[in-house]
Write a structure and sequence with these properties.
It is a single chain. The chain has helices at 14-17, 21-26, 29-47, 54-79, 87-103, 108-131, 137-156, 166-173, 184-200, 203-213, 215-220, 225-251, 262-272, 285-303, 308-343; strands spanning 3-5, 11-13. By secondary structure, the protein is mainly α. It has a single domain, classed as ABC transporter involved in vitamin B12 uptake, BtuC. It is a multi-pass membrane protein.
């Protein structure tokens, strides 16, 4: 059925009930985060000394590059209703492997490839335990977070490897000529485009949203649920290992404790960007805005001499708000709808018959 006939003899299509395009584009949580980002940048530029200097933006991008990279596959994982908390320990493990393999005499490029392969294997371990063994991803990745971090520290101990080729370090930290933007952002843009196409313009991406809505319904619709989740965990481990190589070159140091606690910022960026923690809803540009917002706030606070502990508290608060706010908003909208229904004399909707999560892509 494509239309409904009204008692007055007029005919309305579904388009008559659809929100205007400008509302569907602008009145979204993702755009709200972008608006907040612009507001924070404008405020910090006027209130914090040296924030508007080009060098500040260079270090801002260098600081959040790892978060931006890991947030790409993390977005897809969370949309399926799962989570990967082991990403920061994979960063540390790949950093240590890169340093040890290069120190052992392998060419640096070969060491990088092997470290990334190890990250993919770590992601495959997570995916196997979730999809084949059937364990919850939260419990699995908390366990492998400790496992991979323990391996990293055990392999290298408390020492650090700091001798790396200058050409590789310059490759990721040097700026694009004529801009304050470091070269690593080119890699991020390429990966962001690839992940956006994968999520929003392919059958595989539609399957990701379907799994987040209902994995049983997705299975009966022909989506290979377990294989999709396994591939996403492998992608998450691979990109986290790539971020570990970047982390090593950015700071010139391979250590087992590199990127400790980074998973908090990654998850906060993804959820702040409008991805539902319950799965089935989100858009890739939202977490990018979330990561930029967290990075801009942290940069401004550091320039204002705020300690890292306070910055972590603010990041944690943003994470809590990003989880709680959608539920509060849905509750407020449902209450408003019930009030409008009562004012028109409509019978109340039974609370027990309310549908589940019906949010879409």
């Amino acid at each position: 059925m494509t239309s409904a006939t009204m008692s007055a003899g007029t005919t309305r299509t579904y388009q008559d009930y659809q929100r205007p395009l400008w509302r569907r584009v602008l009145m979204t949580r993702e755009m709200a985060v972008y608006a907040a980002l612009v507001g924070v940048i404008a405020f910090a530029s006027g209130a914090v000394d040296n924030f508007a200097a080009p060098i500040t933006y260079t270090y801002l991008f260098l600081d959040i590059a790892a978060i931006l990279l890991i947030a790409l596959p993390m977005t897809l994982v969370i949309i399926t209703g799962e989570i990967d908390l082991s990403v920061a320990s994979v960063v540390g493990l790949s950093s240590v492997l890169t340093g040890l393999l290069y120190q052992a005499g392998l060419p640096f490029g070969v060491a990088v490839v092997l470290a990334i392969v190890a990250g993919a294997a770590a992601g495959a371990v997570n995916g196997f335990l979730v999809t084949v063994v059937g364990l919850p991803s939260l419990a699995v990745t908390i366990g492998t977070l400790a496992l991979f971090r323990g391996l990293a520290v055990g392999l290298l101990g408390t020492t650090a490897i700091t001798d790396f080729p200058d050409t590789w370090r310059d490759l990721v930290t040097e700026k694009i000529p004529g801009t304050p933007i470091p070269n690593i952002m080119v890699l991020f843009v390429v990966l962001a485009i690839a992940f956006a196409i994968l999520l929003h313009f392919t059958p595989f991406g539609r399957g990701i949203f379907a799994i987040g809505q209902s994995k049983e319904a997705a299975h009966f619709s022909g989506v290979r649920v377990d294989r999709t989740k396994l591939l996403l965990f492998v992608l998450s481990g691979t990109v986290a290992a790539l971020a570990g190589v970047y982390y090593t070159l950015r700071y010139g140091s391979a250590r087992g404790d590199n990127a400790t606690g980074l998973e908090l910022s990654v998850v906060a960026a993804v959820l702040l960007g409008g991805v539902s923690i319950f799965g089935g809803k989100g858009a890739l540009h939202g977490p990018i805005a979330g990561a930029l917002l967290i990075g801009v706030m942290a940069s401004a606070l550091r320039l204002a001499s705020v300690t890292s502990d306070v910055i972590n508290v603010i990041t944690g608060t943003l994470l809590i708000l990003s989880v709680v706010s959608p539920s509060l908003l849905a509750w407020g909208q449902a209450r408003a709808a019930r009030r409008r229904g009562r004012s028109r004399g409509e019978p109340p909707t039974p609370t027990g018959g309310a549908p589940g999560n019906t949010s879409g892509a």
